[in-house]
Amino acid sequence: MTDYSFLRQFADSWGLLYMVLLFVGVIVFTFRPGSKKTAEKIAQIPFEEDRENG
After folding, report:
1. What is the pLDDT of residue 54?
2. What is the C-alpha separation between 5 and 19, in angstroms, rounded?
3. Model pLDDT for residues 25-52, shown as the tens digit of each residue
4. Within 10 A of 1 (CB to CB), how many other CB atoms are there?
5. pTM exceeds 0.90
6. Interhelix angle 16-30/35-43, nearest 10 degrees
């Protein structure tokens, strides 16, 4: 089996499963209870420099 064939077969099976699980994990982490306050705090980071400079 050539390297390309092996990598292609791996990506079609386990690679796809890994990417789906990673995507679902990110979605669950984002919408978990209590994350709204943290997300709002992180969203304000770009504006902190403007507040400091007046």
Report:
1. 59
2. 19
3. 999 988 998 888 988 999 999 998 876 6
4. 7
5. no
6. 90
Q: Which amino acid, 36?
A: K
Q: Which two tokens stand for residue 44?
A: 């304000």
Tally of CB atoms within 10 A around 51? 8
Gap between the Cα atoms of 10 and 29, Å rounded: 27
Question: Nearest Cα to 44, choosing from 26, 52, 32?
Answer: 52
Cα separations in angstroms, 19 against 4, 11, 22, 52: 19, 10, 5, 40
Q: Please give the residue that has the higher pLDDT: either 18 or 11.
A: 18
